[in-house]
Write a structure and sequence with these properties.
The structure is a homodimer.
Chain A (H helix, E strand, L loop, with lengths): L1 H5 L1 H12 L11 H18 L2 E6 L6 E6 L7 E7 L19 E3 L2 E3 L3 H22 L5 E7 L7 H8 L9 E4 L11 E6 L1 E10 L5 E2 L10 H12 L20 H9 L4 H9 L12 H6 L3 E8 L10 E2 L2 E10 L5 H15 L5 E10 L2 E2 L5 H14 L4 E5 L4 H10 L3 E4 L14 E3 H19 L1
Parallel strand pairs in A: 3-6, 3-7, 7-17, 8-16
Antiparallel strand pairs in A: 1-2, 2-6, 4-5, 5-18, 8-15, 8-17, 9-13, 9-14, 10-12, 11-13
Helix pairs in contact in A: 2-4, 3-4, 4-13, 5-12, 6-10, 11-13
Chain lengths: ~450, ~450
């Protein structure tokens, strides 16, 4: 497909323009950037030759829709992606500014490069290329692109739940995951769910002097420490009553396949995670720990004094952002109720606690025998020239659960990111050979599906 | 002494002007305010009639000095106070702005009102009044006022340690503590020491996505929780090996005297500390816990994401500000070494820890039979018309240890603050009747000392 080769420079320039928009959905001051990014995607769909390229307004950031339904009798694929990105902080750790895309070697560095603007653009360009070269698509296609993936995605959930005809499809295709290793075609069949919220702890009615009152005053920061420590032990076992009861262990076959993956634990520790030691439940392998076990992490703590120097304050209030990752078959609402009960039980004397949900998503597991999954494995194998491997991901893509629940369709997670892409961290990047090959693989997928 | 009555309005206006200077020593952007405050005090000493009113420059904020040495054969008293104040945050909890003093009822509200500008001004006005009305003082007096009490006080420590003749005195007098109850003359004979520092915890080389790496990645915030919980148990017992070995218990006589103090535990809980429950070591009374037991408190935690919404980050680094209060006969350096060893032992796998000292101060206990203490008790009794009580304070006044160590002189802690003055917290205030009566009591003290 020389068309795809010939247009690489243009693809890259378009991606750079997309990456320059700081469409950070968790920060309300970027609302205008969110809108610019949604319009950028809409225009891209229109230019690709899709019909009805439009913004769908509602509660939250606009969805972007486009369709091509000229293949009667053929299946309909729903392409999903997101145009919003994570905040870039800590800014000082970026080698180049997060919203000024920079090429270094074969990588493009920018916030959103891999998660998910680069991968979203793969979908748009695949469809554009097929329409430009053949004048039609082998199957029917809808695009449904959201702008709240990093902050809860309530708008798309409501839209999908509404039964709108624009969501009618036989399978979803999502480019928002990674290849297990460079040049190893990969389909992700399992995702963790999540419960993310804020723990608010209140002690005295007012801040207190730690000299005058230290010894009798409850300290909400120390209380957060007590609670976190009660929820998870030093070896990474979650100690929330009932929490792990529904965890479905991987099958023996799956565990065997994982052992055959090109995974070097020492290399993973040193080059990818970059830690002195991999931690967590010692009775499970590292891949099991990130793919098939729940977690509990604190993401940030406020309260008291964090400026320069010393302030001897016992704060009246403190807050911790906490998330737990869930695996099949944990239920997010039940898991959250168990978490909140455990927090209440662990709260030390003298403080009151309150939990505020930020978002929840269900875990998912897809059958590797599904025809849409098998077709994807074939298209990837043909493009990369290697057998496709099936993996899981420790991350959460809430939309997969939403499609499953409301549309009853499988999601094919064909990802082109790499493990060292620094998602959600400074110096996020996307490997450009994967960008170009991804476009061809997605185009090939539609051809395979079209028969 | 009608002079002291007649000049009240002027005293108040001067105090207000002093309180309007935001001389926050922990924030470097207030360096100019620190200088203005030091000059304000110097001018005040000069106006009071002291000789050699001058700034002593050195490493850090200037000291303010003044002297009157016209009473040969009489003792020399060294008056100490500080012109710097704590930061005012959280600003939104102040009823009136912290640096715009406001009178409400008989109280003046402003940052520094009680700690220590109001009390420092008592010393200046007492001397001014005596010189104005008698033309001389009954004893020799030196003032040594610092501007780093809230941030470590290294300059005054170096100056006192240097053996400068301006520090030569028979006793120090410090107005920086509180009365046990309104209208109850009080001398504080014991202070807690402190070790205050920052715990720096490092996990991975870079921030990590909590989905992709949650389960194998060490989380420095969870590690801080582990460490804090290991250092102190749920009942407030410090679990640092050897830490409490040197703690000197109060004498049976002291404990008896404390029981006779007008102390209502329920009122203290509800109206002063304002908590649902007093916490801490259950085998000690609340007064013992704050006066005679060490503590461990966290004052603030940085790392990760604390903005609006959700960011699923496992931070590479996190920091906790931690202090421990010490009691006689704990040694700050030994206690800090024990703390650091316990932190290292408690650090979970996969993280590295580093401790950075911010400041240290020794605890102190003064003999109630000391002649300077007895004279103070008599002056207070005569001014307030009630027997003086001896208490301790849970706070730390590092200079007391410095005077003890380098000058070998006792410190008389004659305080005029009240327990609900909101030191180091929003809505700090000073009770004006104590301000006026304090001036008279200090003047009377000099007369008693002069014989």
């Amino acid at each position: 497909m020389s068309y795809f080769e010939d247009n690489r420079d243009r693809y890259l320039e378009e991606l750079k323009a997309f990456l320059r928009i700081p469409s950070i959905s968790t920060l309300s001051e970027h609302a205008a950037d969110i809108r610019r990014a949604s319009e950028f995607v809409r225009a891209g769909l229109e230019k690709a030759g899709l019909e009805r390229a439009e913004l769908i307004e509602g509660d939250g950031n606009p969805l972007v829709y486009g369709q091509w339904l000229g293949a009667p009798g053929k299946p309909t694929v729903l392409f999903y992606g997101h145009y919003d990105v994570q905040p870039p902080d800590p800014l000082e750790e970026w080698t180049s500014p997060p919203f000024e895309p920079e090429l270094r070697g074969e990588d493009i560095f920018a916030r959103g490069a891999s998660d998910d603007k680069g991968q979203l653009w793969i979908l748009v360009k695949a469809v554009e290329g097929l329409l430009a070269t053949r004048g039609s698509l082998p199957v029917n296609v809808r695009f449904l692109i959201e702008g709240e993936e990093e902050t809860g995605g309530e708008h798309i959930e409501a839209f999908v739940a509404s039964g709108d005809p624009r969501t009618k499809a036989d399978a979803a295709v999502i480019c928002d995951t990674e290849m297990f290793a460079p040049n190893l075609p990969t389909i992700c069949v399992g995702l963790r769910g999540i419960v993310y919220g804020e723990l608010h702890v209140r002690g005295a009615e007012q801040d207190l002097h730690s000299g005058v009152y230290g010894g009798v005053a409850p300290n909400p920061l120390n209380a957060i420490a007590e609670i976190l420590t009660a929820l998870k032990d030093r070896d990474g076992h979650i100690r929330i009553p009932g929490f792990c009861d529904k965890v479905r262990p991987p099958t023996a076959e799956e565990l065997e396949a994982w052992k055959r993956l090109p995974f070097d634990e020492e290399e993973y520790r040193k080059k990818e995670v970059r830690v002195s030691e991999l931690v967590g439940e010692p009775e499970y392998s590292p891949l099991e720990r990130v793919w098939a076990r729940p977690t509990l992490d604190c993401h940030g703590i406020t309260g008291g004094f964090t400026g320069e120097g010393a302030k001897t304050v016992i704060p009246a209030r403190a807050t911790a952002k906490i998330s737990t990752r869930l695996v099949a078959d944990q239920d997010p609402e039940e898991a959250e109720a168990q978490l909140v009960a455990a927090i209440r039980a662990a709260a030390p004397r003298g403080v009151s606690v309150e939990w505020k949900t930020i978002h929840r998503a269900a875990p998912s597991l897809v059958d590797t025998g599904d025809p849409f999954v098998r077709a994807a494995a074939r298209a990837l194998e043909e493009t990369f020239g290697k057998p496709t491997v099936f993996i899981r991901s420790g991350g959460s893509i809430p939309i997969v659960g939403v499609f499953d629940q409301h549309l009853r369709i499988p999601s094919v997670l064909m990802g082109f990111g790499l493990p060292d892409d620094n998602l959600h961290a400074p110096n996020e990047k996307f490997h450009l050979p994967n960008f170009y090959r991804g476009i061809q693989a997605v185009a090939r997928y539609l051809e395979v599906l079209g028969g």
